[in-house]
Structures are given as structure tokens and as C-alpha cells.
């Protein structure tokens, strides 16, 4: 059984999904169901415990792992406070660190992310930091106690695919933690591509939430992730620049007579 | 360097000549670009671009979807005082206007807060006129402290303050600053702001930047459309937003496109700004700054606001009263202007849902 292990939990599904940008919160349970995801992230800043109908948590089943994220945090201190709030709200111990101090490109601040990861992992959180794919930062995140590393494929919400492929491949090769490609994946084929590369999982939100049929799109992503992972495990054939004939002209030399 | 240095570069700019030279080919080229510059933005504000509103709308819609999804944040303004020492030709609070003046007591603020909180809103914007004596900084801070008990996000739209005072506001729990230049053209600014502290063009122009320096999370700016030819003011508003966003990337910058509404007193030098003009402005803004917040007030009528939802708006007011104590009191101070959309929060919520969008009541909290 091919399972993904994070924070002591074994996961069958390698598709994590987000809950932002949907036309209605009411569609979220169906999206979760069709995606077959086991990990769902939500912005703590949108959690409203006082208003049942408006509370995002009301739409996420308890059967999946809640991954509250620190969206809105501009530095480590704010991320830490938001994570603690999430835990106090009953969201559990998993947290996705998002520290963004750039509203133009929404690129993460790796230094502040490392700081927040260190503090929160010491407090017993299962920390999944969202980061710009940089090897040294990833190594520091490992040292800081991260449970996985979540490099971006492209800036959040852009649906532009895995523009940082070379850098993510380095992280997959060098970092001894699950690498979860987060942000930028816009098509199921791109999710499959990430899995073929050897990513442990992908996190998808915008591509599902802003499609015309989020429930079916979630299903498409689920299938793509399974396909990509299966291909990875099956060891893709090597790519070559020149053609290799299926019936080589010198094959007779191996027939024993010569 | 402040924004005035940017303004100066365009002070004597020949807008008419620029607009005259914009071609359809150029508009098409701009709409095919991933990222546009300030002159592209100005071209999208040109009369020539009016023929491309549908193409602009398609692009603006796609960009909005990508960055914000199908969500609209709801909030409401709360007027806590309408005393004002300024003589502004276009404003109902003008010191010369014989209107009923009022400021809310702490008990009245609490009553007003309870009344608004019952609607489910979590974001509120506190407004006063400019009267450092009647509604000093300490009074506003006390009001904020009361409101924090009922709302997750408290913003202020009050008279310009110093950076130190904004820091005090942030410390008290304010995360959102709204301040409008009203009109960027210096000569017109001087003419319509007859007397009072608001006459100081530079102090007001630098106000959003002082808010950014004080670590406000959100800063909302804009021009009051109708005081000058709208394209110039729209351009300056966009330049100002771009300047702030580039210099303070950690602050979320927004623009409102308010139009002059009927108000107490009289001001009859209004430049006409049509619905089509507002649409063009919003679309050009969204294409220029895909990540910009766009706030729409109830100055606009209901049907028009509904049509603007898919065109890049990110934040809308609902259940609005511009009267002091207008949400809970029978003894109200007079409003700043007439509103055009009187719908309740519940009605707005249902309209947003019917458009296939999600009304968001809470998008921040005290941390």
C-alpha cells in the first residue's frame, strides 16, 4: 500500500485541497467528497465560530484532517499567533504556515516562515510551511522541525503550472521530507506532472474553485494525482534525444551465431 | 520622496493629446499583455477604449477570479460624529451647513454596534467629520475599543492624522484606513476646500502613506469623482495606489470610485461621470493592478452595484446609514450624503449569492 506519512498520520490520498474562492461554501462538502482528499486547508481569518452558516468549518467534515493556514500573516509573529488561535478554535495540531508580506505577487517570506516553523514545531504543531523553492531554506525548514515542505509551483492563484520545476526537483532529490507542490497548479495534467516528478502530494485550490464545475474538477484532479503517482512508482522510461529502433539493425549479433 | 513627486511629473501632462493618439490597435495590444504599464493604464482610460469595454470586462473578470475567486467582502460604515470645521464645497458636513450635529456617547456607540452586529457583519468602518475638538483622537480610540468587542475588523475613515496617531490606532485594534484625496488636481482642490485643515493638500496627500508606515493592514484611497474630469482623477488614483503598493508591499491597497451624491448645501460645478465611465475606470484598474482591492459604496444604485459584482469589485458596503446613530437611534445626526442602495445586509447577501458569488462576512480577526 502506497501511503504518505506526515506527522504520524498515514494518508492514502495525495491531493490536498483549499477552501477559498468558491462561489458558495455549500459546494465545499461535495468538492471534498469528489476529490477523495484527506487534507483540507482553510484560512483561519475566515473561521467564524459565532456564525454557524458563515463558519467555514461547518462545511468541512471531521473525517478529513483540518489544515488551518495562516493566510494574512505578514511575519513570523503573526503566523504564530494565528496558528495558536486555530488550535484554540479546535482545528487540531496541523498548520500550514503562510507568511506573505508582498500583496503584489503573494510570494512567501522564507526567513519568517523558518522562524514560525521553529516556534510552532516546538509547541507540538505538525507544521507544513509554504515556501519559495530554495534548497537552503528547505534545509533550514527541516532543521526547524517541519513535517513537510510546500514549495510553490507558480505564484498563488495564477494557474500557470509548475514554473519552478527545476528547483522543486532539487528539493525532491535533496530533502528528506515529503515535498508537497502548493500554488500555481492550474490543470489536472500539471498535478500529474508534479506527481511524476516525485512530489509526495499537491495542494490545489484556485484551479478547482474557479472552474465552472468545481465538483467534477476536483474529481479530475483526484484521478490525475493517482495517475501521476502511479507513473512515478512505475519508473518512467528514460527520455533520449534520438530515436531508438524497436527492431535494431544489429540485433542479429546477439543471436549466438555471430 | 512622496506621491507628490509622482503627481508633479503629470501636473502639466497633455492628456488631450495623449488620448487623441490612442489607437484601436494599441488598445488591442495592451489587452494582450500580461502586465501593463502606467501609460497602458491611461490608454485604457481613454475615450478610444470605450469601444473595448466588453474585451476589458472579460479580462478584468478573469483576473478578479484568479486573484479573489467568487467572493465579496461585506462591511458597513458607522458614523459616530458629524461635527466638522472644514468648508468643503461638495460635502453635507460643511461647517456652514445648518444640519443637525451629533456625536455618539460611548453608550450610543455600543447600542449602534449591537444593532449592526445582529446583521452578522464582522467588518466595520468608523467615520467622523473633521473636528479635533468634538471628536479627538482619544474619542475615536475609545470608540474603537468598544467596537472591538463586536467586530473582527475595525477600520477608520476620519480626518488625516499623524503617523504617531495612526500607530495608536493600530495599537487600539484598527486594521483598515480609508482616506480619499477627493481631487488630485491641486487647483481644484484649493477651490473646493474653501477653508479648514482639509485645505492642506500635501498633508492629505501623504495621509495614506502615513497609514502604511504605521502598519495598517489595509489602506483604501480614491478620488471623489465629479470634482474634476474623471479620466485624470482615475489615472491619479491608480498611480497613487501603484505607488503605495510598490513602496509598501505588505499593505493591502484598495481603491473606491465614489461619485458625488446629493447632499446638504449646494455645489453645482459637478463634472458628469456616467455609469459607463465608472465601469471603464474599474476595468482599467483591475487590468492595471490585478491584486488591488476595489470597494463599492452605496452611493451607487442597487441595480448598477449588482452588475458590477463580476467586474472586479472585492468589497461592498451593505445596510448603510450615513446618519450619526443611524442604525439604532431615533435621535440621529444628519447624513453626509444621500445613499442610493438602501438594501439590508440580508438582501445584499442574497443578491451576491444569486450572482454565483460568496458573501464573506469575516476576513480578518484580532491576533
UniProtKB/TrEMBL annotation, chain A:
User: Know the name of this protein?
Assistant: Thiazole synthase
EC number(s) stated in the UniProt entry for this protein: 2.8.1.10
Cellular compartment(s): Cytoplasm
Gene name of the record: thiG
Family indicated by similarity: Belongs to the ThiG family.
CDD domains linked to this entry: ThiG (cd04728)
What organism is listed for this UniProt entry? Crassaminicella indica
Question: What is annotated as the active site?
Answer: 96
Keywords (A to Z) from UniProt: Cytoplasm, Schiff base, Thiamine biosynthesis, Transferase
Q: Which InterPro entries match?
A: Thiazole_synthase_ThiG, ThiG
* Positions with a binding annotation for 1-deoxy-D-xylulose 5-phosphate: 157, 183-184, 205-206
Provide the function of this protein. Catalyzes the rearrangement of 1-deoxy-D-xylulose 5-phosphate (DXP) to produce the thiazole phosphate moiety of thiamine. Sulfur is provided by the thiocarboxylate moiety of the carrier protein ThiS. In vitro, sulfur can be provided by H(2)S.
Its domain of life reads: Bacteria
Q: Which reaction does it catalyse?
A: [ThiS sulfur-carrier protein]-C-terminal-Gly-aminoethanethioate + 2-iminoacetate + 1-deoxy-D-xylulose 5-phosphate = [ThiS sulfur-carrier protein]-C-terminal Gly-Gly + 2-[(2R,5Z)-2-carboxy-4-methylthiazol-5(2H)-ylidene]ethyl phosphate + 2 H2O + H(+)
Per the record, the pathway is: Cofactor biosynthesis; thiamine diphosphate biosynthesis
All residue ranges annotated as the Thiazole synthase ThiG domain in the record: 5-248
Q: What Pfam families has UniProt attached to this entry?
A: ThiG (PF05690)
Q: What class of enzyme is it?
A: transferase
TrEMBL record, chain B:
Q: Which cofactor does it need?
A: [4Fe-4S] cluster
Q: Which UniProt keywords apply?
A: 4Fe-4S, Iron, Iron-sulfur, Metal-binding
> What InterPro entries does the record tag this protein with?
BATS_dom, rSAM, ThiH, ThiH/NoCL/HydG-like
**Ranges for the Radical SAM core domain?**
67-292
Matching entries from NCBIfam families are given as: thiH
Please identify the protein, giving its name as recorded.
2-iminoacetate synthase ThiH
Q: Which organism is it from?
A: Crassaminicella indica
Amino acid at each position: 500500500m502506497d501511503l504518505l506519512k506526515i506527522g504520524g498520520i498515514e494518508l492514502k490520498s495525495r491531493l490536498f485541497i483549499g477552501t477559498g474562492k468558491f462561489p458558495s461554501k455549500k459546494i465545499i462538502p461535495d468538492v471534498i467528497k469528489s476529490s477523495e482528499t484527506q487534507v483540507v486547508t482553510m484560512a483561519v481569518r475566515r473561521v467564524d465560530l459565532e456564525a454557524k452558516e458563515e463558519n467555514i468549518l461547518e462545511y468541512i467534515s471531521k473525517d478529513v484532517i483540518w489544515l488551518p493556514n495562516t493566510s494574512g500573516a505578514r511575519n513570523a509573529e503573526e503566523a504564530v499567533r494565528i496558528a495558536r488561535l486555530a488550535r484554540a478554535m479546535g482545528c487540531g495540531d496541523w498548520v500550514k504556515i503562510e507568511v506573505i508580506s508582498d500583496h503584489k505577487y503573494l510570494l512567501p517570506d522564507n526567513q519568517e516562515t523558518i522562524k514560525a516553523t521553529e516556534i510552532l514545531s516546538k509547541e507540538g504543531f505538525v507544521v507544513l510551511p509554504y515556501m519559495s523553492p530554495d534548497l537552503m531554506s528547505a534545509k533550514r525548514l527541516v532543521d526547524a522541525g517541519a513535517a513537510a515542505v510546500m514549495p510553490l509551483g507558480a505564484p498563488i492563484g495564477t494557474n500557470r503550472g509548475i514554473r519552478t520545476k527545476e528547483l522543486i526537483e532539487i528539493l525532491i532529490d535533496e530533502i528528506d521530507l515529503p515535498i508537497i507542490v502548493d500554488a500555481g497548479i492550474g490543470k489536472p495534467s500539471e498535478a500529474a506532472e508534479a506527481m511524476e516528478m516525485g512530489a509526495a502530494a499537491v495542494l490545489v485550490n484556485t484551479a478547482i474553485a474557479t472552474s465552472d464545475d468545481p465538483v467534477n474538477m476536483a474529481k479530475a484532479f483526484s484521478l490525475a494525482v493517482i495517475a501521476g503517482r502511479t507513473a512515478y512508482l512505475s519508473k518512467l522510461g528514460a527520455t533520449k534525444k534520438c530515436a531508438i529502433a524497436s527492431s535494431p539493425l544489429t540485433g542479429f549479433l546477439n543471436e549466438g551465431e555471430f | 520622496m512622496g506621491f507628490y513627486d509622482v503627481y508633479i511629473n503629470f501636473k502639466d501632462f497633455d492628456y488631450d493629446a495623449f488620448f487623441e493618439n490612442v489607437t484601436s490597435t494599441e488598445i488591442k495590444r495592451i489587452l494582450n499583455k500580461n502586465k501593463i504599464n502606467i501609460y497602458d493604464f491611461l490608454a485604457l482610460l481613454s475615450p478610444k477604449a470605450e469601444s473595448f469595454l466588453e474585451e476589458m470586462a472579460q479580462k478584468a473578470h478573469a483576473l478578479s477570479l484568479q486573484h479573489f475567486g467568487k467572493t465579496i467582502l461585506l462591511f458597513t460604515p458607522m458614523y459616530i460624529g458629524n461635527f466638522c470645521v472644514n468648508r468643503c464645497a461638495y460635502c453635507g458636513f460643511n461647517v456652514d451647513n445648518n444640519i443637525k450635529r451629533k456625536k455618539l456617547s460611548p453608550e450610543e456607540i455600543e447600542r449602534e454596534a449591537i444593532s449592526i452586529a445582529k446583521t452578522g457583519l464582522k467588518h466595520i468602518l468608523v467615520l467622523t467629520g473633521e473636528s479635533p475638538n468634538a471628536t479627538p483622537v482619544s474619542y475615536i480610540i475609545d470608540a474603537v475599543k468598544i467596537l472591538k468587542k463586536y467586530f473582527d475588523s475595525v477600520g477608520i475613515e476620519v480626518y488625516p492624522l499623524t503617523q504617531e496617531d495612526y500607530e495608536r490606532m493600530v495599537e487600539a485594534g484598527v486594521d483598515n484606513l480609508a482616506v480619499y484625496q477627493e481631487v488630485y488636481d491641486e487647483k481644484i482642490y484649493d477651490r473646493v476646500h474653501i477653508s479648514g485643515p482639509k485645505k492642506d493638500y500635501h498633508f492629505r496627500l501623504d495621509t495614506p502613506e502615513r497609514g502604511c508606515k504605521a502598519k495598517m493592514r489595509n489602506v483604501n484611497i480614491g478620488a471623489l469623482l465629479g470634482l474634476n474630469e474623471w479620466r485624470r482623477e482615475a489615472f491619479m488614483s491608480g498611480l497613487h495606489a501603484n505607488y503605495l503598493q510598490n513602496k509598501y508591499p505588505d499593505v493591502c491597497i484598495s481603491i473606491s470610485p465614489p461619485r458625488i451624491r446629493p447632499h446638504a448645501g449646494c455645489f453645482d460645478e459637478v463634472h458628469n461621470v456616467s455609469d459607463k465611465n465608472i465601469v471603464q475606470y474599474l476595468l482599467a484598474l483591475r487590468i492595471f493592478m490585478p491584486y488591488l482591492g476595489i470597494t463599492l459604496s452605496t452611493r451607487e444604485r442597487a441595480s448598477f452595484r449588482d452588475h458590477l459584482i463580476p467586474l472586479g469589485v472585492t468589497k461592498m458596503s451593505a445596510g448603510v446609514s450615513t446618519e450619526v446613530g443611524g442604525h439604532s437611534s431615533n435621535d440621529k445626526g444628519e447624513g453626509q450624503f444621500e445613499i442610493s442602495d438602501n438594501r439590508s445586509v440580508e438582501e445584499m447577501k442574497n443578491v451576491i449569492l444569486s450572482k454565483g458569488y460568496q458573501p464573506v462576512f469575516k476576513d480578518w480577526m484580532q491576533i
